[in-house]
Design a protein that fits this description.
Length: 226
């Protein structure tokens, strides 16, 4: 018989199983799993009734969570001239052009977000093979190709979260840390759910949001009623 760690047995005793909970109740349950020394990341997984193979049913975008995500994101910016200086002043971790493109082409992806001024996309486009699979490719739809680079850098530093349906029609995102105050974590989660609800593709018929699950880095998932 497989050995089950004592900590996991205790977590199982607190778990509601398949029972659906409100966001507030789910957060209270997650807080009971805060038994580790490190500050666990809280993730949300929303299963949608979409066909991700159809371009008009892809759900993607970005949202600035009201209470951040509990860590400072590393942001790189493709810009030149005044926009480059503005990006640096806004707190970008690295700003550049051809030099930055070469660094990324050689395999460097030690950052969480990539922003580009529109006139730099000719340089950024060929980097799609490196940035695309990692979800880091700038795009107008996600708001990461923009002339307002300084504003966008500040938003990502404050806690902007990018999201996109995966091959199974599920949206995954970080919504905070387990040591957040319950009210702040609840607000972040509800804000994210509201955004997903508001961008339902017109081509989707039937039930749009099929399930919502919250979990911490080392905790069971808690199902949420929407």
């Amino acid at each position: 018989m497989a050995h089950v760690a004592k900590r996991l047995r205790k977590l199982a005793d607190k778990h509601p199983g398949k029972e659906l909970k409100s966001v507030e109740e789910a957060v209270k349950i997650l807080k009971q799993y805060d038994t580790l020394k490190f500050n666990q990341t809280v993730d949300i997984a929303i299963r949608l009734g979409v066909d991700p193979k159809q371009a008009d049913q892809i759900v993607r975008g970005s949202v600035v969570l009201p209470n951040g995500i509990g860590k400072s994101q590393r942001v790189v910016v493709f810009a030149k001239g005044d926009l480059a200086e503005q990006a640096k002043a806004a707190g970008a971790d690295e700003v550049g052009g051809e030099d930055l493109a070469k660094k990324i082409k050689d395999g460097w992806t030690d950052f969480d977000a990539c922003i580009a001024a529109p006139d730099m996309m000719g340089l950024v486009g060929p980097l799609g093979k490196v940035l695309g699979p990692r979800g880091l490719m700038p795009s107008p739809r996600a708001g990461t190709v923009t002339p307002e680079v300084a504003k966008t850098v500040k938003e990502y530093k404050a806690g902007t979260v990018d999201f996109r349906t995966d091959a199974g029609g599920i949206v995954h995102a970080v919504v905070g840390k387990i040591k957040f105050e319950p009210a702040k974590l609840t607000e972040n989660i509800q804000s994210f759910i509201n955004v997903i609800q508001s961008i339902k593709p017109h081509a989707v018929k039937g039930q749009y949001i099929k399930s919502v699950t919250l979990s911490a880095t080392m905790s069971p998932g808690v199902r949420v009623a929407v």
